[in-house]
Write a structure and sequence with these properties.
The complex is a heterodimer of chains A (292) and B (91). By secondary structure, chain A is of the alpha/beta class. In chain A, 48% of the residues lie in helices and 14% in strands. In chain B, strand 1 and strand 2 form a beta hairpin. With 91 residues, chain B is an alpha+beta fold. In chain B, helix 1 crosses helix 2. Helices cover 37% and strands 26% of the residues of chain B. Classes of the chains: A alpha/beta (292), B alpha+beta (91). The interface between A and B is medium-sized, with 15 and 18 residues.
Protein backbone atom coordinates (compact mmCIF):
# COMPACT_ATOMS: atom_id res chain seq x y z
CA UNK A 1 0.00 0.00 0.00
CA UNK A 2 1.92 3.04 -1.28
CA UNK A 3 1.13 6.61 -0.27
CA UNK A 4 1.01 9.08 -3.18
CA UNK A 5 0.69 12.83 -2.49
CA UNK A 6 -2.64 13.89 -3.96
CA UNK A 7 -1.54 17.25 -5.33
CA UNK A 8 1.36 15.97 -7.44
CA UNK A 9 0.22 14.94 -10.94
CA UNK A 10 3.78 13.86 -11.78
CA UNK A 11 3.75 11.32 -8.93
CA UNK A 12 0.18 10.25 -9.66
CA UNK A 13 1.03 9.63 -13.33
CA UNK A 14 3.91 7.31 -12.44
CA UNK A 15 2.50 5.72 -9.30
CA UNK A 16 1.23 2.48 -10.77
CA UNK A 17 4.40 1.39 -12.56
CA UNK A 18 6.15 0.37 -9.33
CA UNK A 19 3.78 -2.51 -8.65
CA UNK A 20 2.21 -1.56 -5.30
CA UNK A 21 -0.87 -3.64 -4.47
CA UNK A 22 -2.76 -0.51 -3.44
CA UNK A 23 -2.20 3.14 -4.30
CA UNK A 24 -3.18 5.38 -1.39
CA UNK A 25 -3.77 8.90 -2.71
CA UNK A 26 -3.26 11.30 0.14
CA UNK A 27 -5.15 14.54 0.65
CA UNK A 28 -4.34 14.66 4.37
CA UNK A 29 -0.92 15.10 5.97
CA UNK A 30 1.15 15.49 2.78
CA UNK A 31 -1.01 18.42 1.61
CA UNK A 32 -0.62 22.01 2.82
CA UNK A 33 -3.78 23.62 4.20
CA UNK A 34 -3.80 26.10 1.28
CA UNK A 35 -3.80 23.23 -1.24
CA UNK A 36 -6.51 20.98 0.23
CA UNK A 37 -9.07 21.98 -2.41
CA UNK A 38 -6.58 21.44 -5.25
CA UNK A 39 -5.51 18.00 -4.01
CA UNK A 40 -9.11 16.93 -3.51
CA UNK A 41 -9.93 17.76 -7.15
CA UNK A 42 -6.69 16.22 -8.44
CA UNK A 43 -7.50 12.89 -6.80
CA UNK A 44 -11.15 13.06 -7.84
CA UNK A 45 -10.28 13.48 -11.52
CA UNK A 46 -7.31 11.08 -11.45
CA UNK A 47 -9.64 8.32 -10.23
CA UNK A 48 -12.24 9.30 -12.80
CA UNK A 49 -9.94 9.51 -15.83
CA UNK A 50 -7.12 7.00 -15.22
CA UNK A 51 -7.69 3.25 -15.59
CA UNK A 52 -5.81 2.01 -12.50
CA UNK A 53 -5.29 -1.76 -12.51
CA UNK A 54 -4.47 -1.97 -8.81
CA UNK A 55 -6.59 -1.29 -5.74
CA UNK A 56 -7.13 2.43 -5.11
CA UNK A 57 -7.57 4.20 -1.79
CA UNK A 58 -7.82 7.78 -0.64
CA UNK A 59 -6.67 9.06 2.73
CA UNK A 60 -9.09 11.88 3.48
CA UNK A 61 -8.83 14.50 6.20
CA UNK A 62 -10.46 13.79 9.55
CA UNK A 63 -14.22 14.02 9.15
CA UNK A 64 -15.03 15.72 12.45
CA UNK A 65 -11.76 17.27 13.62
CA UNK A 66 -11.04 19.23 10.39
CA UNK A 67 -13.25 21.30 8.07
CA UNK A 68 -11.94 19.31 5.06
CA UNK A 69 -12.90 15.68 5.62
CA UNK A 70 -16.55 15.74 4.59
CA UNK A 71 -15.79 17.91 1.54
CA UNK A 72 -13.09 15.40 0.56
CA UNK A 73 -15.59 12.56 0.73
CA UNK A 74 -18.34 14.40 -1.14
CA UNK A 75 -15.93 15.21 -3.98
CA UNK A 76 -14.06 11.91 -4.15
CA UNK A 77 -16.65 9.18 -3.42
CA UNK A 78 -18.42 9.57 -6.81
CA UNK A 79 -15.08 8.67 -8.46
CA UNK A 80 -15.37 5.25 -6.74
CA UNK A 81 -12.10 4.54 -4.98
CA UNK A 82 -11.96 0.98 -3.60
CA UNK A 83 -11.12 2.24 -0.12
CA UNK A 84 -11.37 5.33 2.02
CA UNK A 85 -8.70 5.58 4.71
CA UNK A 86 -9.88 7.44 7.78
CA UNK A 87 -6.99 9.01 9.67
CA UNK A 88 -6.75 9.27 13.46
CA UNK A 89 -9.89 7.20 14.00
CA UNK A 90 -11.05 7.42 17.59
CA UNK A 91 -14.71 6.42 17.65
CA UNK A 92 -17.29 4.31 15.88
CA UNK A 93 -19.36 7.49 15.36
CA UNK A 94 -16.75 8.81 12.91
CA UNK A 95 -16.87 5.57 10.98
CA UNK A 96 -20.67 5.53 10.89
CA UNK A 97 -20.75 9.09 9.57
CA UNK A 98 -18.60 7.99 6.65
CA UNK A 99 -20.44 4.71 6.13
CA UNK A 100 -23.75 6.59 5.83
CA UNK A 101 -22.29 8.93 3.23
CA UNK A 102 -20.78 6.05 1.27
CA UNK A 103 -24.13 4.28 1.21
CA UNK A 104 -25.87 7.42 -0.08
CA UNK A 105 -23.28 7.93 -2.83
CA UNK A 106 -23.38 4.26 -3.87
CA UNK A 107 -27.15 4.46 -4.24
CA UNK A 108 -27.09 7.80 -6.06
CA UNK A 109 -24.33 6.78 -8.48
CA UNK A 110 -25.69 3.28 -9.06
CA UNK A 111 -22.57 1.57 -7.71
CA UNK A 112 -23.03 -1.99 -6.45
CA UNK A 113 -23.50 -2.03 -2.67
CA UNK A 114 -20.16 -2.54 -0.94
CA UNK A 115 -18.08 -1.05 -3.80
CA UNK A 116 -16.35 1.37 -1.44
CA UNK A 117 -14.92 0.12 1.84
CA UNK A 118 -13.06 1.67 4.75
CA UNK A 119 -9.66 1.26 6.33
CA UNK A 120 -9.29 2.94 9.73
CA UNK A 121 -5.96 4.24 10.92
CA UNK A 122 -5.35 4.09 14.65
CA UNK A 123 -3.01 6.94 15.53
CA UNK A 124 -3.71 7.78 19.17
CA UNK A 125 -4.07 6.07 22.53
CA UNK A 126 -7.78 6.92 22.55
CA UNK A 127 -8.13 5.31 19.12
CA UNK A 128 -6.27 2.23 20.30
CA UNK A 129 -8.68 1.77 23.19
CA UNK A 130 -11.58 1.89 20.67
CA UNK A 131 -9.88 -0.29 18.06
CA UNK A 132 -11.88 -3.44 18.83
CA UNK A 133 -15.20 -1.68 18.29
CA UNK A 134 -13.96 0.28 15.28
CA UNK A 135 -12.71 -2.90 13.59
CA UNK A 136 -16.17 -4.47 13.83
CA UNK A 137 -17.95 -1.60 12.09
CA UNK A 138 -19.70 -2.23 8.77
CA UNK A 139 -17.45 -1.75 5.70
CA UNK A 140 -14.27 -1.63 7.76
CA UNK A 141 -12.05 -4.15 5.95
CA UNK A 142 -8.75 -3.27 7.60
CA UNK A 143 -7.23 -1.31 10.44
CA UNK A 144 -3.82 0.27 10.22
CA UNK A 145 -1.36 1.65 12.69
CA UNK A 146 -0.39 5.29 12.10
CA UNK A 147 2.91 5.07 13.92
CA UNK A 148 4.24 8.62 13.80
CA UNK A 149 1.16 10.26 15.34
CA UNK A 150 0.82 7.41 17.83
CA UNK A 151 4.41 7.90 19.01
CA UNK A 152 3.80 11.63 19.38
CA UNK A 153 0.73 10.84 21.48
CA UNK A 154 2.80 8.47 23.64
CA UNK A 155 5.44 11.19 24.11
CA UNK A 156 8.31 9.00 22.97
CA UNK A 157 10.31 8.53 19.77
CA UNK A 158 10.98 5.84 17.19
CA UNK A 159 13.76 3.38 17.93
CA UNK A 160 15.48 0.71 15.87
CA UNK A 161 14.08 -2.07 18.08
CA UNK A 162 10.51 -0.73 17.93
CA UNK A 163 9.57 -1.30 21.57
CA UNK A 164 7.55 1.94 21.56
CA UNK A 165 5.05 0.48 19.06
CA UNK A 166 4.99 -3.11 20.30
CA UNK A 167 1.84 -2.76 22.41
CA UNK A 168 -0.04 -0.79 19.74
CA UNK A 169 0.90 -3.27 17.02
CA UNK A 170 -0.22 -6.17 19.22
CA UNK A 171 -3.54 -4.56 20.11
CA UNK A 172 -4.31 -3.58 16.52
CA UNK A 173 -3.53 -7.06 15.36
CA UNK A 174 -5.78 -8.60 18.02
CA UNK A 175 -8.61 -6.20 17.13
CA UNK A 176 -8.25 -7.06 13.45
CA UNK A 177 -8.26 -10.79 14.07
CA UNK A 178 -11.20 -10.49 16.47
CA UNK A 179 -13.17 -8.75 13.70
CA UNK A 180 -11.79 -11.01 10.96
CA UNK A 181 -10.36 -8.10 8.97
CA UNK A 182 -6.83 -7.20 7.80
CA UNK A 183 -4.14 -5.44 9.82
CA UNK A 184 -1.71 -3.07 8.08
CA UNK A 185 1.53 -1.93 9.65
CA UNK A 186 2.71 1.67 9.78
CA UNK A 187 5.13 3.39 7.38
CA UNK A 188 8.90 3.39 7.79
CA UNK A 189 10.04 6.96 7.25
CA UNK A 190 13.81 6.40 6.89
CA UNK A 191 13.47 5.76 3.15
CA UNK A 192 17.08 4.91 2.30
CA UNK A 193 17.63 2.65 5.34
CA UNK A 194 16.57 -0.45 3.46
CA UNK A 195 18.07 -2.89 5.96
CA UNK A 196 16.15 -1.25 8.79
CA UNK A 197 13.04 -1.39 6.64
CA UNK A 198 13.59 -5.07 5.85
CA UNK A 199 13.88 -5.87 9.56
CA UNK A 200 10.74 -3.94 10.43
CA UNK A 201 8.69 -5.63 7.67
CA UNK A 202 9.97 -9.06 8.74
CA UNK A 203 9.10 -8.37 12.37
CA UNK A 204 5.59 -7.11 11.64
CA UNK A 205 4.92 -9.99 9.25
CA UNK A 206 6.09 -12.44 11.92
CA UNK A 207 3.71 -10.76 14.38
CA UNK A 208 0.86 -11.52 11.98
CA UNK A 209 0.29 -8.29 10.02
CA UNK A 210 -1.19 -8.65 6.54
CA UNK A 211 0.75 -5.85 4.87
CA UNK A 212 2.84 -2.73 5.16
CA UNK A 213 2.25 0.88 4.16
CA UNK A 214 5.12 2.35 2.15
CA UNK A 215 6.11 5.87 1.21
CA UNK A 216 8.66 5.19 -1.53
CA UNK A 217 8.80 2.81 -4.52
CA UNK A 218 12.15 1.48 -3.22
CA UNK A 219 10.27 -0.18 -0.36
CA UNK A 220 7.73 -2.10 -2.48
CA UNK A 221 10.02 -4.92 -3.65
CA UNK A 222 11.11 -5.68 -0.09
CA UNK A 223 7.53 -5.94 1.14
CA UNK A 224 6.61 -8.26 -1.73
CA UNK A 225 9.70 -10.38 -1.15
CA UNK A 226 8.97 -10.82 2.55
CA UNK A 227 5.24 -11.39 2.17
CA UNK A 228 5.55 -13.88 -0.72
CA UNK A 229 5.92 -17.41 0.70
CA UNK A 230 9.15 -19.22 -0.18
CA UNK A 231 9.19 -22.05 -2.71
CA UNK A 232 9.82 -24.48 0.14
CA UNK A 233 6.78 -23.21 2.09
CA UNK A 234 4.57 -23.38 -1.00
CA UNK A 235 5.71 -26.91 -1.90
CA UNK A 236 5.10 -28.13 1.65
CA UNK A 237 1.69 -26.43 1.85
CA UNK A 238 0.56 -27.92 -1.45
CA UNK A 239 1.67 -31.34 -0.18
CA UNK A 240 -0.27 -30.83 3.07
CA UNK A 241 -3.44 -29.81 1.25
CA UNK A 242 -3.17 -32.67 -1.26
CA UNK A 243 -2.71 -35.19 1.57
CA UNK A 244 -5.63 -33.65 3.44
CA UNK A 245 -7.83 -33.92 0.36
CA UNK A 246 -6.80 -37.52 -0.09
CA UNK A 247 -7.49 -38.30 3.59
CA UNK A 248 -11.00 -36.84 3.35
CA UNK A 249 -11.72 -38.78 0.17
CA UNK A 250 -10.60 -42.03 1.78
CA UNK A 251 -12.14 -41.42 5.22
CA UNK A 252 -8.76 -41.45 6.92
CA UNK A 253 -8.43 -39.59 10.22
CA UNK A 254 -4.80 -38.95 11.06
CA UNK A 255 -2.36 -38.11 8.25
CA UNK A 256 1.34 -37.33 8.10
CA UNK A 257 3.41 -35.31 5.64
CA UNK A 258 7.21 -35.61 5.65
CA UNK A 259 6.97 -37.56 8.90
CA UNK A 260 4.92 -34.91 10.73
CA UNK A 261 1.32 -35.27 11.87
CA UNK A 262 -1.10 -32.93 10.08
CA UNK A 263 -4.04 -31.52 11.99
CA UNK A 264 -6.56 -28.69 11.57
CA UNK A 265 -4.37 -25.65 12.32
CA UNK A 266 -1.64 -26.92 9.99
CA UNK A 267 -4.18 -27.23 7.18
CA UNK A 268 -5.41 -23.69 7.87
CA UNK A 269 -1.81 -22.39 7.75
CA UNK A 270 -1.18 -24.25 4.50
CA UNK A 271 -4.33 -22.73 2.99
CA UNK A 272 -3.15 -19.30 4.06
CA UNK A 273 0.29 -19.76 2.51
CA UNK A 274 -1.23 -20.93 -0.77
CA UNK A 275 -3.62 -17.94 -0.74
CA UNK A 276 -0.70 -15.56 -0.10
CA UNK A 277 1.29 -17.17 -2.91
CA UNK A 278 -1.61 -16.80 -5.32
CA UNK A 279 -2.11 -13.18 -4.28
CA UNK A 280 1.57 -12.62 -5.04
CA UNK A 281 1.09 -14.06 -8.52
CA UNK A 282 2.68 -17.49 -7.96
CA UNK A 283 1.02 -20.15 -10.14
CA UNK A 284 -0.17 -23.20 -8.21
CA UNK A 285 -1.92 -26.26 -9.61
CA UNK A 286 -5.25 -26.64 -7.80
CA UNK A 287 -5.27 -30.44 -7.48
CA UNK A 288 -5.53 -30.22 -3.69
CA UNK A 289 -8.75 -28.25 -3.57
CA UNK A 290 -10.91 -30.44 -1.36
CA UNK A 291 -14.02 -28.34 -1.97
CA UNK A 292 -14.18 -29.39 -5.62
CA UNK B 1 -24.71 29.48 -15.19
CA UNK B 2 -22.29 30.80 -12.61
CA UNK B 3 -19.67 33.52 -12.82
CA UNK B 4 -16.49 33.99 -10.84
CA UNK B 5 -16.03 37.00 -8.57
CA UNK B 6 -12.26 37.42 -8.60
CA UNK B 7 -9.00 36.36 -10.19
CA UNK B 8 -7.82 32.99 -8.88
CA UNK B 9 -4.80 30.81 -9.51
CA UNK B 10 -4.00 27.14 -8.90
CA UNK B 11 -1.31 24.64 -9.86
CA UNK B 12 2.39 24.84 -10.56
CA UNK B 13 4.62 25.37 -13.59
CA UNK B 14 6.14 21.91 -13.07
CA UNK B 15 6.41 18.78 -15.20
CA UNK B 16 3.00 17.19 -15.81
CA UNK B 17 1.23 20.12 -14.17
CA UNK B 18 -0.25 23.47 -15.24
CA UNK B 19 -0.55 26.88 -13.67
CA UNK B 20 -4.13 28.00 -14.25
CA UNK B 21 -5.42 31.53 -13.72
CA UNK B 22 -9.07 32.45 -14.15
CA UNK B 23 -10.29 36.05 -14.43
CA UNK B 24 -13.86 37.39 -14.49
CA UNK B 25 -15.07 38.94 -17.74
CA UNK B 26 -17.94 41.30 -18.56
CA UNK B 27 -21.34 39.69 -18.99
CA UNK B 28 -21.78 38.20 -22.44
CA UNK B 29 -18.08 37.70 -23.17
CA UNK B 30 -18.33 33.95 -22.61
CA UNK B 31 -15.32 31.70 -22.17
CA UNK B 32 -11.95 32.73 -23.59
CA UNK B 33 -8.73 30.72 -23.37
CA UNK B 34 -5.06 31.64 -23.50
CA UNK B 35 -2.88 28.54 -23.67
CA UNK B 36 0.88 28.54 -23.27
CA UNK B 37 2.12 24.96 -23.47
CA UNK B 38 5.30 23.01 -24.08
CA UNK B 39 3.21 20.65 -26.21
CA UNK B 40 0.94 23.22 -27.88
CA UNK B 41 1.98 22.26 -31.42
CA UNK B 42 1.06 18.62 -30.87
CA UNK B 43 -1.87 18.89 -28.45
CA UNK B 44 -2.99 22.53 -28.43
CA UNK B 45 -6.45 21.93 -29.90
CA UNK B 46 -7.10 18.99 -27.59
CA UNK B 47 -6.01 20.95 -24.52
CA UNK B 48 -8.25 23.89 -25.44
CA UNK B 49 -11.18 21.51 -25.77
CA UNK B 50 -10.42 20.04 -22.34
CA UNK B 51 -10.27 23.53 -20.84
CA UNK B 52 -13.54 24.72 -22.39
CA UNK B 53 -15.31 21.45 -21.54
CA UNK B 54 -14.15 21.68 -17.93
CA UNK B 55 -15.51 25.24 -17.61
CA UNK B 56 -18.82 24.29 -19.24
CA UNK B 57 -19.22 21.12 -17.13
CA UNK B 58 -18.67 23.20 -14.00
CA UNK B 59 -21.39 25.52 -15.36
CA UNK B 60 -19.39 28.77 -15.50
CA UNK B 61 -19.35 31.51 -18.12
CA UNK B 62 -17.85 34.98 -18.70
CA UNK B 63 -14.42 33.82 -17.63
CA UNK B 64 -10.96 34.15 -19.14
CA UNK B 65 -8.76 31.10 -18.53
CA UNK B 66 -4.99 31.38 -18.80
CA UNK B 67 -3.13 28.07 -18.75
CA UNK B 68 0.64 27.72 -18.53
CA UNK B 69 0.95 24.03 -19.26
CA UNK B 70 3.98 21.80 -18.72
CA UNK B 71 2.55 18.57 -20.10
CA UNK B 72 -0.41 18.09 -17.75
CA UNK B 73 -2.54 15.04 -18.56
CA UNK B 74 -6.24 15.58 -19.21
CA UNK B 75 -7.34 14.73 -15.64
CA UNK B 76 -4.80 17.10 -14.09
CA UNK B 77 -5.79 19.98 -16.35
CA UNK B 78 -9.48 19.34 -15.65
CA UNK B 79 -8.77 19.31 -11.88
CA UNK B 80 -6.81 22.56 -12.02
CA UNK B 81 -9.54 24.34 -14.01
CA UNK B 82 -12.30 23.23 -11.65
CA UNK B 83 -10.28 24.26 -8.59
CA UNK B 84 -9.43 27.66 -10.06
CA UNK B 85 -13.10 28.34 -10.86
CA UNK B 86 -14.13 27.31 -7.39
CA UNK B 87 -11.53 29.62 -5.83
CA UNK B 88 -12.60 32.44 -8.16
CA UNK B 89 -16.24 32.02 -7.13
CA UNK B 90 -15.49 32.48 -3.43
CA UNK B 91 -16.38 35.87 -1.99
Amino acid sequence: MMFVPGNSPKMINNAEIYGADTLMFDVEDSIAISQKDAARMMVKYALKYLPFNCETAVRVNHVTQTPFGMDDLKAILPSKPDLIRLPKTESVDEVRLVTNLIEKVETKEGFPEGSINIICAIESVRGLYEARAIAKEKRVVAIALGGEDFIADLRTQRTAHGIELYYARSQILMAARDANIQAMDTVFADVYNLEGFRKEVTDSKDMGFDGKSVIHPLQIGIVHEIYTPTEQQITHSVKVLASYKDAIANNRGVITVDGKMIDGPIVVRAERIVAQAKAAGVWIQEEFNHEE
Amino acid sequence: MQTIKKIATVGFEETNDALVTVSPQKAGQGITVELISTVKRQYGEHLELIIIDAVKQADYTDVHVEVRDRGAWDYALHARIVTALSRGAEQ
